[in-house]
């Protein structure tokens, strides 16, 4: 059925595993998929352009792999430059010729609310697709989908609340501001939260009147395509949301360089973010970036210890550690260090790793072979650097990309495993004595996405929260997202904020009108 | 005047003559005469469709009879025929309703995740939309307004409820930087049980302006619809239930202002009173609410100026001033009832206005061509015609109209008075009907002075092509809403409310949320941690 053209996409083949196949084919636009939990559904495989699923112009497809079994789930069509062109045309017509940007804002709100309702009705399938494609535990996937629904609904409510201001500069003038959409937005999302990132991108963009072309990650295109089938039914007009599955080098590049695209939003690695920022600079596109992190998670001696242990576990092993804001650097106050490390070791060893569809599983598979290899190579680096491996540090089983929860102790702040983002279930633990010391260590990073503080002393909590350089600070909790609370990075962790009213700022531009009165 | 005692007799079927004008009064009867009044009745609408009308009080999520089984008759102002009997709440029912609302407030409504409230309001908006035809027909039948007006009302109701739904999770407090020794923030919290009293001119729209912002901010309500127009609020109450609004959050108690309104204003468990109606009643309500220091918002009367400058697009301006006064049969608190025309175009505009008015179709609200339906009650009809008589006595000239239309149904001809003086009663008083006075002015200063010479300050209209004039005049007018080259142009996002004696507080838009939240400030000292 398929003609294999270039089998080797990523060549880091020290361990032989599954590599993604890319083919020419006449793939049907819907294929039946049977989920491990027995549910069956029809998976759209086309690009979603102008409210229709279409084959890519060159009829190329690529393989989507189940990271828990390393087996093929299905193929989907691969978009390329000419497909981006078609999508831009659709988004351009929707923005400029049709009325999406200028209709009654409540109509945009209503359509987005309907989309959320339609996803909600189908949420078990949607969560299952996410587990299947990404490898994350079904309990994590359900949390993602609920947050998707909540966020779409919260965004819907912003439609008619994008007020400008009336600025009084005295009797001689009349001044006001309006918030207007940008136009066509190119959006590039990662594979760790495929549907959640889809929601964070499309909701604030379309509610403010923009139209979008979104590129999903090549390893996890399924959930975005699946929910796209609800877009017409929700009443969102053709061309407002376009999904082009494909690869960063081709589709991402085409988006960042297209002259009609006014804005690029990207979530992914800091390295890719820098490249995108540079590419977008040529066309002076507006850019928002959600990038990497190496977030400190600080435990004071006066914290509720069992609670803090649980939060450190959630902070790093949630979503298999594939979280940009993972609390990957743990700092523990000296007086409780030994006790805490012991309890953390026990808790990490009790984390249930395995089949994502097992209801008891907390940590599923890493999303790709490449990711698995990267994480295991960091374990080697840590050992060579002289850190003590307290637990984990190895692959679990030989089928599926599972890794044991891993803790390194006795680390030094200049070790690579303390400095670099690993993006897996690996933490380092460091001892500290004073508040000043831990704040200094916490801030000694190029990143600044998140930080955790565990203490029963409100004064310590607020002082550290004030001083730590991070876009999100969690106190006595971690990885605790809420659709109303903005999320985004200081420094190399990014530009702009997602969720909350701040996300709206990424997708509007202010027009100031000043009229002189006679 | 007729007294209730007279009506408690066997007068049932409608005609209770008081000279030429008196036709129908709302009957108040003990339901012993109609023992076993059902909690819902089938009603066939003038458009031929039949629906089920709830007739009970809506308390704690259910329709219930009033404690003393009293009922009241609701009549169709276009035909003067009875529509149905609904239960009439008494003081004991207010007790029950307030207790239910208090329980609902103290259970999870106020503290639930905001999404819960958002979802209820979005669903309610959807249901209003699904039931739009029935609701609009009920409104036209009960209030007498043209179906065209009712449809506009219902569309705004669903938009407003949906817009309110979106506010649920956007009621931000502030973090206030007071230096590093302290942590200070403010949160916005609901008030508790809100008593809400609404008028008969926009029964369902006022219902939504009241319950929308109250509910989304976490309050619970006991709402009294107007005695003459309780039907749409009761119908919509069942939609609240279907939308998932928990029992006790919305309670509807039809009844008289004197009994129910007063009981709500004085009840110690009611934390806020919101009222829309006459300025006279507004004062009484504020006084009654003062004893328990309730928060009060009032949307009261108006006598709004509508100004036409010589440089306006005169045809458009004429449509706008006609719409400003005859829309909803003139039963609009912000009606543009004082028209001011610049002297150089006075005769021309007056003549165009007369011609336009002559073409307005008055009559059966269900006729698709009808713009102006019936006045809502006999009392209102009498009051309007009385003002016409007074205007004539004061020496004003009737340009057109001035009479009742037909002998059945409370229809009044669209009426223009010209050659008025600013001190005439018809220029000073709110008539609340399709009666407009037209005055001449020469300069901006002149018209601003005249426009502001009123105890009211609800709205004002300005018609001009000159943006400088429009902005300059809008700055000087004392009114809560200014319409420029338009009139009665409501929008769910644009706040509405009065200056002067037209009221306190604003409805719709973000401003409405202020009426239903109170700020709690938290300031915490931060010690230097011990290490």
From TrEMBL, chain A:
Similarity field: Belongs to the aldehyde dehydrogenase family.
Residues of the active site: 290
Organism: Maudiozyma humilis (Sour dough yeast)
One cellular component (GO) term of this entry: mitochondrial matrix
Name of this protein: Aldehyde dehydrogenase (NADP(+))
GO terms assigned for molecular function: aldehyde dehydrogenase (NAD+) activity
Subcellular location(s) of the protein: Mitochondrion matrix
UniProt keyword terms in alphabetical order: NAD, Oxidoreductase
InterPro entries: Ald_DH/histidinol_DH, Ald_DH_C, Ald_DH_CS_CYS, Ald_DH_CS_GLU, Ald_DH_N, Aldehyde_DH_dom
UniProt KW Oxidoreductase keyword: yes
Lineage of source species: Eukaryota, Fungi, Dikarya, Ascomycota, Saccharomycotina
GO BP annotations listed: acetate biosynthetic process
Presence of the UniProt keyword Zinc-finger in the record: no
Domain Aldehyde dehydrogenase: 53-513
TrEMBL record, chain B:
A Gene Ontology term for the protein's cellular component: mitochondrial matrix
Active-site residue list: 299
Listed pathway(s): Alcohol metabolism; ethanol degradation; acetate from ethanol: step 2/2
Gene Ontology molecular-function annotations: aldehyde dehydrogenase (NAD+) activity
Record has Glycoprotein as a keyword: no
Compartment(s) where it occurs, according to its Swiss-Prot or TrEMBL record: Mitochondrion matrix
UniProt xrefs under InterPro entries: Ald_DH/histidinol_DH (IPR016161), Ald_DH_C (IPR016163), Ald_DH_CS_CYS (IPR016160), Ald_DH_CS_GLU (IPR029510), Ald_DH_N (IPR016162), Aldehyde_DH_dom (IPR015590)
Protein family membership: Belongs to the aldehyde dehydrogenase family.
Name the UniProt record assigns to this protein: Aldehyde dehydrogenase 5, mitochondrial
Organism: Maudiozyma humilis (Sour dough yeast)
Classification lineage: Eukaryota, Fungi, Dikarya, Ascomycota, Saccharomycotina
């Amino acid at each position: 059925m398929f003609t294999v053209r270039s089998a080797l996409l990523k060549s880091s083949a020290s361990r032989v595993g599954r590599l993604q196949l890319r083919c020419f084919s006449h793939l049907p636009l819907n294929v039946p998929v049977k989920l491990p939990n027995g549910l069956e559904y029809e998976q759209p495989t086309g690009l979603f352009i102008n409210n229709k699923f279409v084959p890519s112009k060159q009829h190329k497809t690529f393989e989507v792999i189940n990271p828990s079994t390393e087996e093929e789930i299905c193929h989907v069509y691969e978009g390329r430059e000419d497909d981006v062109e078609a999508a831009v045309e659709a988004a351009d017509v929707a923005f400029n010729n049709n009325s999406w940007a200028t209709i009654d804002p409540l109509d945009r709100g209503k359509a987005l609310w309907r989309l959320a309702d339609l996803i909600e009705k189908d949420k078990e399938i949607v969560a299952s697709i996410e587990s299947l494609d990404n490898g994350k535990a079904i309990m994590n996937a359900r949390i993602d989908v609920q947050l998707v629904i909540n966020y779409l609904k919260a965004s819907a409510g912003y439609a008619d609340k994008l007020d400008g201001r009336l600025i009084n500069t005295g009797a001689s003038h009349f001044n006001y501001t309006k918030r207007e959409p940008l136009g066509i937005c190119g959006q590039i999302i990662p594979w760790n939260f495929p549907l959640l990132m889809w929601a964070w991108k499309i909701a604030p963009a379309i509610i403010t009147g923009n139209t979008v072309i979104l590129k999903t990650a090549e390893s996890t295109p399924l959930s975005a395509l699946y929910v796209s089938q609800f877009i017409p039914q929700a009443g969102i007009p053709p061309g407002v949301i376009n999904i082009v599955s494909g690869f960063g080098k081709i589709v991402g590049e085409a988006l960042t360089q297209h002259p009609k695209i006014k804005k690029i939003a990207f979530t992914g690695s800091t390295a890719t973010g820098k490249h995108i920022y540079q590419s977008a600079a040529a066309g002076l596109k507006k850019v928002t970036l959600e990038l990497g992190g190496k977030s400190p998670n600080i435990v004071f001696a006066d914290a509720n210890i069992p609670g803090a242990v649980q939060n450190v576990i959630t902070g790093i092993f949630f979503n298999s550690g594939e979280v940009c804001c993972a609390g990957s650097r743990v700092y523990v106050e000296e007086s409780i260090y030994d006790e805490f490390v012991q309890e953390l070791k026990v808790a990490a060893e009790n984390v249930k790793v395995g089949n994502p569809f097992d209801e008891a599983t907390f940590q599923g598979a890493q999303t790709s072979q490449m990711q698995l290899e990267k994480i295991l190579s960091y374990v080697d680096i840590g050992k060579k650097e002289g850190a003590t491996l307290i637990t984990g540090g190895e692959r679990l089983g030989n089928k599926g990309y599972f890794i044991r929860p891993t803790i390194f102790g006795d680390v030094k702040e200049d070790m690579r495993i303390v400095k670099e983002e690993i993006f897996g279930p690996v933490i380092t633990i460091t001892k500290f004595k004073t508040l000043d010391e831990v704040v200094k260590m916490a801030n000694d990073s190029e990143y600044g996405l998140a930080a955790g503080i565990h203490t029963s002393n409100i004064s310590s909590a607020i002082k550290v929260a004030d001083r730590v350089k991070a876009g999100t600070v969690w106190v006595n909790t971690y990885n605790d997202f809420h659709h109303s609370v903005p999320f985004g990075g200081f420094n190399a962790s990014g530009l702009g904020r997602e969720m909350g009213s701040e996300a709206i700022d990424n997708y509007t531009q202010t027009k100031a009108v000043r009229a002189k009165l006679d | 005047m007729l007294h209730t005692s007279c009506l408690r007799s066997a007068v049932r079927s409608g005609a209770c003559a008081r000279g030429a004008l008196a036709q129908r009064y709302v009957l108040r009867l003990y339901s012993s005469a109609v023992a076993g009044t059902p909690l819902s009745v089938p009603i066939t609408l003038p458009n031929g469709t039949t629906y089920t009308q709830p007739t009970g009080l809506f308390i704690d999520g259910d329709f219930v009879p009033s404690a003393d089984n009293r009922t009241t008759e609701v009549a169709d102002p276009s035909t003067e025929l009875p529509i149905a009997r609904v239960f009439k709440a008494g003081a004991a029912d207010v007790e029950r309703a307030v207790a239910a609302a208090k329980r609902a407030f103290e259970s999870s409504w106020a503290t639930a995740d905001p999404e819960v409230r958002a979802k209820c309001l979005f669903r309610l908006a959807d249901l209003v939309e699904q039931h739009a035809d029935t609701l609009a027909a009920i409104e036209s039948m009960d209030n007498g307004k043209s179906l065209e007006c009712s449809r506009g009302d219902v569309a705004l109701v669903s938009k407003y409820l949906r817009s309110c739904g979106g506010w649920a999770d956007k009621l931000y407090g502030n973090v206030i930087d007071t230096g590093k020794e302290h942590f200070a923030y403010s949160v916005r919290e609901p008030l508790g049980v809100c008593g809400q009293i609404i008028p008969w001119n926009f029964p369902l729209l006022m219902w939504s302006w009241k319950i929308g912002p109250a509910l989304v901010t976490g309050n619970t309500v006991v709402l009294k619809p107007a005695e003459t127009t309780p039907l749409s609020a009761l119908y919509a109450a069942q939609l609240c239930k279907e939308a998932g609004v928990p029992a006790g959050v919305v309670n509807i108690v039809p009844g008289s202002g004197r009994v129910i309104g007063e009981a709500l204003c004085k009840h110690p468990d009611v934390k806020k009173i919101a009222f829309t109606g006459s300025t006279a009643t507004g004062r009484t309500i504020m006084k009654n609410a003062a004893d328990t220091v309730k928060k009060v918002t009032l949307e009261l009367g108006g006598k709004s100026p509508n100004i036409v400058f010589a440089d306006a697009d005169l045809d458009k301006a004429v449509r706008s001033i006609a719409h400003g006064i005859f829309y909803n049969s003139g039963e609009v608190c912000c009606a543009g009832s004082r028209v001011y025309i610049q002297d150089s175009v006075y005769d021309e505009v007056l003549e165009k206005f007369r011609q336009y008015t002559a073409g307005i179709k008055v009559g059966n609200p269900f006729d698709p061509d009808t713009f102006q339906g019936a006045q809502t009650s006999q009392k209102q009809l009498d009051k309007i015609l009385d003002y016409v008589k007074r205007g004539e006595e004061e020496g004003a000239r009737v340009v057109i109209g001035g009479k009742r239309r037909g002998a059945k149904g409370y229809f009044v001809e669209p009426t223009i008075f010209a050659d008025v003086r600013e001190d005439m009663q018809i220029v000073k008083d709110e008539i609340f009907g399709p009666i407009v006075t037209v005055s001449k002015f020469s300069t901006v200063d002149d018209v601003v002075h005249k426009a502001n010479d009123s105890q009211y300050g609800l709205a004002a209209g300005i018609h001009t092509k000159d943006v400088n004039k429009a902005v300059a005049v809008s700055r000087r007018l004392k009114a809560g809403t200014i319409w420029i080259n338009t009139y009665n142009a409501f929008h769910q996002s644009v706040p509405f409310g009065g200056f002067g004696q037209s009221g306190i507080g604003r409805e719709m838009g973000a401003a409405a949320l202020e009426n239903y939240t109170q700020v709690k400030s938290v300031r915490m000292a931060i010690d230097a941690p011990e290490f």
